[in-house]
Amino acid sequence: MFNRMKEDINSVFDRDPAARNVFEVLTNYPGLHAVWFHRLSHRLWKFNCKWLARSLSTFSRWLTGIEIHPGATIGRRFFIDHGMGVVIGGTAEIGDDVTLYQGVTLGGTSWKEGKRHPTLMNNVVIGAGAKILGPITIGKNGKVGSNSVVVKDVPENGTAVGIPARIINAKKDDSAAEKREKVAKKYGFDAYAVATDNPDPVAKAIGRLLDHIHLMENKVSDLCREVNQLGGHVCQEALPELRVGEFDEDEKAAAKRRESAKESFDPAI
Predict the structure, then answer these.
(1) What HEC string does 73-88 produce?
(2) What is the pLDDT of the chain when averaged over all its residues?
(3) 50 and 109 in a common domain
(4) Residue/partner pairs of 151-160 with CB below 8 Å, 24 or more apart
(5) Among residues of the chain, what percentage have pLDDT more than 90?
(6) C-alpha distances in Å from residue 149, one per residue of 29, 50, 119, 166
(7) Are 205 and 233 in a shared domain?
(8) pLDDT tens for residues 175-221?
(9) Beta-carbon neighbour count of residue 161 at 10 Å?
(10) Residue span of the structural domain in which 95 resides
(11) What is the pLDDT of residue 175?
(12) How far apart are CA 19 and CA 33, in angstroms?
């Protein structure tokens, strides 16, 4: 049990850069609390203590703003970021390393008994406000854009956006997406939702920039190799590592300098 809790805490640090320390995560992350309450209520549900399981689930909803039916099956390292308004139905099945953002609904489209809610495979990411409806499957590594309404299966490695949702990239684009992700991680950037054919103009522009950087790096590497073969000594030193935090610190320092300049400015001069 404690190993699972440790995994859950580590998953918060892996997926939320705002998390600062363990105490803050334990006391201020309702998504984590909701998952732990669900594990207890799910065990009660399986032991046929259904009223007690539902009551604990209701208390968890009151405390966290997240409603998870005790009958839902949830895998390891499940993370709900922010969490308010998340609803997970009783026959939903969620794999390992899945991430949901606020306002997500894993709901049903029928009043008939049986499987009525979605199945999310491993490593799925569901954006804020998305609605996944019916006994459909979101394939491994699938992504659903914010405020999308998904009523059909999403293939493995696919990204679904829109109302109703359409698939904007699938397995054929894996190589290009992987290249972008590698370049993005190298420069301290999160390439989430930067698909090869994303309709968002900002995401598309960022994706093209990542492609351009990747191409330029390859050309510079080839050029350095040819020069060195001719007797030159170039590109001997590794490029310095870039960290997003360094840019944040520079921006904070610049803001302080601007504030100091304002305070020292005398309008009478």
Answers:
(1) EECCCCEECCCCCCEE
(2) 81
(3) yes
(4) 151/109, 156/121, 159/193, 159/195, 159/198
(5) 42
(6) 26, 31, 15, 9
(7) yes
(8) 666 666 666 666 555 555 555 555 556 666 776 777 778 788 888 88
(9) 23
(10) 2-169
(11) 64
(12) 15
d(CA 269, CA 264): 11
| 146 lies in the same domain as 202 | no
| Count of structural domains, the chain | 2
Give the span between the Cα atoms of 89 and 68, in whole angstroms. 7
3-state secondary structure at position 142: coil
Distances (CA, A) of 53 to 34, 39, 44, 60: 13, 10, 5, 11
Put simply, whether the predicted model's pTM sits higher than 0.90 gets the answer no
Last-in-domain residue among 169, 197, 212: 169
**Do 161 and 37 sit in the same domain of this protein?**
yes
Q: Which residue has the tokens 């590592």?
A: 241
> Among the three residues 132, 153, 169, which one is the final residue of a domain in this structure?
169
Do 7 and 33 lie in one domain? The reply is yes
Quickly count helices (H) and strands (E) in the chain: 7, 15
Q: For the chain, give the number of residues.
A: 269
Check whether residue 106 and residue 189 sit in a common domain.
no
CA 265 to chain centre: 45
Helices (H), 103-150: none
**Strand ranges across the sheet with 93-94:** 73-74, 93-94, 119-120, 137-138
Assess whether 43 and 134 both reside in one domain: yes
